[in-house]
Amino acid sequence: MGNKQFVIQFGGLSVGTHDYEFEVTNTFFESFEYSEVHKANIKVKLEVVKQNNLLTLNFEIGGTIGVDCDRCLAEFDIPVSSKQSLVVKHGDVEETNDDIVVLSHGATEVNISQPLYEFINLAIPVRKVPCEISKKYKCDTETLNRLNNISIDENPEEENNPLWDKLKNINFNNN
Ligand SMILES: [Zn+2]
User: Residues within 5 Å of ion ligand 1 by Cβ?
Assistant: First the structure.
């Protein structure tokens, strides 16, 4: 597995708190075959709290992700930020779940790529219409009009669909 820089060697760490910083960019997502994210500029602060029998990983994720607007298909960088925690311990590997990573006995390193990938994806809003997030963003009205026209041509009976009126209004408000 790639992303070797996201491996925490905790075997030699003293009991206590240790701080790490990571940069997550486009290349991070290349190792995830089905990633919907391809563009990112994210900083991750990771606090590793080591106790005798377990580690607690506290992630602070902040930056931007490139997404395609759900409405006009233009690409935007949207802000993402998130705080997440993960417990790492030794035991039955099968017991690993979203909150706990269970490593086999004797393991002294943990790869945080997968949980980090999931945390970042969780931080992306389900509805990706950047102009609804901030006035700073605008929908590509040209594409939007073209998409609307195509849809109306294909579905003439929907010409009076209140959804289109709603879309037109939203579009108007953002100009
Ligand atoms: Zn848009």
Answer: 69, 71-72, 139
- 113-130 confidence digits (pLDDT tens): 999 999 999 999 888 887
Beta-bridged to residue 101, according to DSSP, are 88
SS3 string, 64-89, reads EEEEECCCCCCEEEEEEEEEEEEEEE
CA of 140 to the centre of ligand 1 (A): 6
CA 134 to chain centroid, in Å, comes to 19
Q: What is the pTM of this model?
A: 0.77
- Distance (angstroms) between ligand 1 centre and the Cα of 143 equals 9
Q: Which residue bears the tokens 């206590």?
A: 16
